What does this fold into?
Amino acid sequence: MHRCTENTFEPTFVWDPGSRVPPLGTCEAHFWLGPLDVPAPELPSWAELLPDGERDRAARFHFAVDQQRYIVSHAILRLILGAYLEQSPRLIRFSTNAFGKPFVEATTNGGQIEFSLSHSGDMAAIGIVRGHPVGVDVELVRNDVNIEELAPTIFAARELASFRTFEGEARGEAFFNGWTRKEAYIKARGEGLSYPLQEFNVSIDPSRTFQVADQNAQGATHTGWATRTTHRARVYPAAMIVLGEGMMVRYFGWRKPWIPADGTQQIGGS
It folds into this structure.
């Protein structure tokens, strides 16, 4: 695995509506964040970007809004990957590891691209890296979640102590900050929920850099970033981590999802 020597953290979210994805350097991690809400009449066009298996999975959702979010998030992932790989998004083939983590099959992945996708509410996050495992997560801050009941089942002792120092709205955001960071880390490891959540610690303070302390991965290097955005007056914390040293993050987004005419090289909008 390539070892990078420069460790640069860029905390500013850059909303780039450019029509082409920028070059992806070996020591770069591209953190994409954007909305999923599209007019219902456009949904069939998005679904056409997906293979039969993904359309079947979307159809299993009971509520139409969940079907839409699945279709658009996975179509945007294919559009972005297609732009990086310079091929039609419809031709990209995925497989999964033993724990269900998806990856681009070698036959369609000449650039050794690794990715991670997450969506919550009307937002999606996508992490793109070359040659390093990556995990990303985004969560809608919700008031209908019993954070006091869930926190002891998710957080390690040190995280729980930190969580309990927050009050009011800050406590809720601290919970979702911790949740996104832990989810991003286990996604990067590729072991799913089989990896014990309480055997590693993340920083949950919104003002702190995303850090991980894992007793089962002594000596391993991680580079993590956390951000937050709002959409329709709702708050979304998001986090991305790369299992590699000295990575630089660049932030990108799409203002309004749209499908380019050829479905290959462009992503973005106005």
